[in-house]
From TrEMBL:
Domain ABC transmembrane type-1, chain residue ranges per copy: 71-283
Protein localization: Cell inner membrane; Cell membrane
UniProt name for this protein: sn-glycerol-3-phosphate transport system permease protein UgpA
Keyword Transmembrane set for record: yes
Annotated membrane topology: Multi-pass membrane protein
Assembly behavior: The complex is composed of two ATP-binding proteins (UgpC), two transmembrane proteins (UgpA and UgpE) and a solute-binding protein (UgpB).
NCBIfam families: PRK10561.1 (NF007852)
Example GO BP: transmembrane transport
Gene: ugpA
InterPro entries per record: MetI-like (IPR000515), MetI-like_sf (IPR035906), UgpAE/MalFG_permease (IPR050809)
Length: 293
């Protein structure tokens, strides 16, 4: 039988969701409305003069080669962070799920990175790759690989991708581990008796049963790559060298707070918000069809 909670008063349900609704209105809808309003205006840096310009700010953005290039940078960065983070997290979850002795210690160590602030994660990995004290850079040089993220754009991109994956790996790990532990062992044992190899068991039984978790994490990781990596980029590379790591969310900050182009920055915010909404809709419309609940 389906159980439902019945409220005697009509106002109590609204009162219970009021705090969450207030947070959504204040921290999402109000800023989004402000960005949309400012994106159709043209005003000076001090807000003394204001003029309605319609879609001119958007036209100017799409005529800017550096802004169009940031789309490519963001697409590459987001794909590497989302796919790489999910793959590595799933691998760690599978390995941790097989550990018998000191399993709690391994799981606790893998969860710790999530408690680190994004800016701290950026500085931490920057120091490990920085000269002359970075341990990873020293190891790379010893292996004959010259590392310089200050001059090489690919090296800088690799730095922020690694830092972003490491920062969010704990979140993915927790969900994958919970998903693995919810799979009935009888299915795995039956496949083993039938002679299925570990690789075959994983792709035909384990991974399909993890598809709801994987789909959820894919959506979350895409949003994470678009929005929550700003602090890592700002702390590690500041969008450099040149503009090689200037992803869309960092360009919004740079143009608005450093270049003082408030209205152009607002237009970029609107475009970024629409891109994330569109990607989420596409994932739910097409990717979810391959999910087995």
């Amino acid at each position: 039988m389906e159980k439902r909670v019945l409220f005697k008063s009509g106002w109590l349900p609204w009162a219970l969701i009021a705090p969450q609704m207030a947070v959504i209105l204040v921290f999402f809808f109000w800023p989004a409305g402000q960005a949309l309003y400012q994106s159709v205006l043209q005003e000076d840096a001090f807000g003394a003069t204001r003029e309605f310009v319609g879609l001119d700010n958007f036209k100017r953005l799409f005529a800017d080669p550096s802004y169009l290039d940031s789309f490519r940078i963001t697409a590459v960065f987001s794909a590497l962070v989302a796919v790489g983070g999910l793959a590595l997290s799933l691998l760690l979850a599978v390995m941790a799920n097989r550990v018998v002795r000191a399993a709690g210690v391994y799981k606790t160590l893998l969860i710790w990175p999530y408690a680190v602030a994004p800016v701290v994660a950026g500085v931490l990995w920057l120091m490990m790759f920085a000269s002359p004290y970075g341990v990873i850079r020293y190891a790379l040089i010893e292996m004959g690989f010259e590392w310089n993220h200050l001059l090489n754009g690919r090296h800088a991109m690799a730095l922020i991708v690694i830092a972003s994956i490491w920062k969010y790996i704990s979140y993915n790990f927790l969900f994958f581990l919970a998903g693995l532990q919810s799979i009935p062992h009888s299915l795995i044992e039956a496949a083993t008796i039938d002679g299925a190899t570990p690789w075959r068991r994983f792709w035909t039984i384990v991974f399909p049963l993890l598809s709801p978790t994987t789909f959820f994490l894919l959506v979350i990781n895409v949003v994470h790559a678009f929005f929550e990596t700003f602090a890592i980029v700002d702390a590690a590379t500041s969008g450099g060298p040149g503009k090689d790591t200037a992803i869309l969310v960092y360009k919004v900050y740079y143009d608005g707070f450093k270049a003082m182009d408030v209205n152009g920055s607002a237009a970029q915010s609107v475009i970024l918000m629409l891109i994330v909404i569109a990607l989420t809709v596409v994932q739910f419309k097409f990717v979810e069809k391959k999910v087995h609940y």
